[in-house]
Amino acid sequence: MTQLASMGGDTAADNEGGTGGETVAPEAYTLGDATGPLDPDALRRLDAWWRAANYLAVGQIYLKDNPLLREPLQAEHVKPRLLGHFGTVPGLNLVYAHANRLIRDRGLSAVFVAGPGHGGPGPNACGWIEGTYSELYSHIPRDAEGMQAFFHQFSYPGGVPSHAAPETPGSFHEGGELGYSLLHAFGAALDNPDLTVFCVVGDGEAETGPLAGSWHANKFVNPARDGAVVPVLALNEYKIANPTLLARIPQEELETLLRGYGYEPHVVAGSDPAQVHQDMAAAMEACLDGIAEIQRVARAAGGDAGPEDGRRRWPMIVMRTPKGWTCPPVVDGQQVEGTFRAHQVPLPAARTDGTHRAVLEQWLRSYRPEELFDEDGAPVAELLEQNPEGDARMSANPVANGGLLLRDLRLPDWRDFGVEVGTPGSTDHEATRVLGRWLAEVTRLNPTSFLTFAPDELASNRLQDILDVTGRSWQAEIGEFDERLDRQGRVVEVLSEHMCQGLLEGYLLTGRHGLFTCYEAFIHIVDSMFNQHAKWLQASAEVDWRRPIASFNYLLSSHVWRQDHNGFTHQDPGFLDVVLNKKPEIVRVYLPPDANTLLSTYDHCLRSRHYVNVVVAGKQPQADWLGVQDAALHCARGAGIWEWAGHGDETGSDPDVVLACAGEIPTLETLAAAALLRERLPDLRVRVVNVVDLMRLLPESEHPHGLPDSEFDTLFTADKPVIFAFHGYPWLVHRLTYRRTNHAQLHVRGYKENGTTTTPFDMVMLNDLDRYHLVVDVIDRVPALRSRAAGLRQEMVDTRLRARTWTREHGVDLPEVAEWTWPGATGQA
């Protein structure tokens, strides 16, 4: 090690950033003797590949010029802003290098998941050595010029992020937010029998709730039909500023914990490169041998073996290496290597402080780049020979660019599953139950490319017909009284919204299809995961070589208006607000009002690509409004006039008022209000507009589905009152329509955070969304009615009071409400 005084710069400017104390540069090491499966030559070659990846990682963080140190390092060679994270990178590169050896030796199809946050320099470097980076980015060849461009772009304006991102070849996991690496890895392995996923889990990440739950994902892996995950728990002891919990508990306690999760841990620990390489080689071979045996037994048994047949624990690796391994051990008198100070940039003043810069140069030279890159700056032949070939490279495996593998689903004609509708409202169905019959057939027709995920709510959300064609996936013990658990099941039910979301993301990102059904109020648990996935979709759409993947499809039921029995905690439609914060190119929100429109909507969603589709639909019996053909037309329009529900439109006259609605219960209350107005104010011209596709409310300049102003004004009028009954928070509709001509006349009723345990109708009354209040709104906003309809207004107010009193006395809704049906209209819906 070389020790330098931290104030040894040449000029005053050079000395900025020094804090006093010695700074120690790492020295190049010579591999000593170590026992293990690697012969001396294999050990030396593998270590050279690892050193090359580490060199390229450090270069990305620090250098914008002089990439091969062909001249002494100067301040102008160093980036003005030093961004990035080195602490976790050597461990990532170590796993990657050893995985490549096994890919070559065993003919594996493998992908790599970098779980530790902001470890992007590692996978970037590995992809550059493998050549994939240069194939995808022709302006970054594998030579000195390309290396400079490669370094310059990292964490630089207009460049690439500091984590494994859509721009990173071979990545399908965003490393910026922690907690989801294992879920993405296991999601990728499902229905991929020949795939091995090497997943590095950061020990800081391992403290998160989603990651803690995701260890259980192995209970949903059937070794007969699925691939395998090799988790590598990277214990480098520190996160940003504190030690990590799993690194500080006794080793026996840690191993007991992991065995309890169903894993057999193999420990790799130390800081001597030679011995760590040997131990990692032995551990990886043991893991793959163990996986091969588990799969052999399961596949011989036809995939029906379970714990009672001698289920074995899945192998994994616990890797203990120093934080910032190989970086300067001491900087400005403070220990860096092996501490939290190595988490990001170990030499933060390398541009302005001469000592830091000198140590940076020695650090880079400690990897001996002259042995690793030829005169042209390309990796030497010895490194290239260690790369897998073609698609076998983890940075080039098509699985990590799932759109390349994506195939259309076989979808039955949804019309064959629709319900008969004569007069609107004359029949009723559970909309999601009707959808479930169709989804059962979708599941049957796509036995290896479609999965349904639910947090123990499949039957509660009325999708239980899917279980007639498949069971619930289950690889743990099956008890005497359990129902519909199936080793081969195509439904994944686990009481963790995080796990459902993450597994489906991994499944979609690697080229398959699926849906996630959840109670509306509790989908908020995955708000942050949704944000990350939506951002991935947006960013990857801007990467030329990425191919569109299947859309992420939510089905939210047990919604706010029918959670009256469960109370206030179960009443929250705010996920729609979260979704609409994202780029309009990525998100879609649908509020189908009945069974047939739900079928049509979901058929569209399962055919779509590269979106997040949010569909909110009820599971309780509700009236059927539209027949199959009209439902198809209405959903294609996204928003339209229901002429049979209003009155006055057929004369060609402008309406006096527009009753608009979006959502199942708002539609019901709007139609009931329209019927009251038709009966009590027959001269009033009322138009009823139903909105299925919420994005139609936006201008066409703001969303691909948006209505042009002329069409919006034709539908909603440019100057008449609009009473809009909305499923969610009312201000969302205002946010979508504030630029419209008639926005000043738009009055929205929706959920106002008034909830309790009560009856269905009392819930809408609590939020002023009920039919009687909608009639009052019409009287208050149509000038000609204010005095003429005063008696009707008073009657509506009194009826609301009577309905409230009835619920308190009888525990159910007023009969005229509970038994209400549409009074009839000419023609068929």
TrEMBL record:
E.C. code: 4.1.2.-
Cofactor: thiamine diphosphate
Region (Disordered): 1-32
PROSITE patterns named in the record: PHOSPHOKETOLASE_1, PHOSPHOKETOLASE_2
Annotated Pfam families: XFP, XFP_C, XFP_N
Domain Xylulose 5-phosphate/Fructose 6-phosphate phosphoketolase C-terminal: 619-822
Domain called Xylulose 5-phosphate/Fructose 6-phosphate phosphoketolase N-terminal: residue spans: 39-404
Broad EC category: lyase
Protein's UniProt name: Probable phosphoketolase
Species of the source: Microlunatus capsulatus
Lineage: Bacteria, Bacillati, Actinomycetota, Actinomycetes, Propionibacteriales
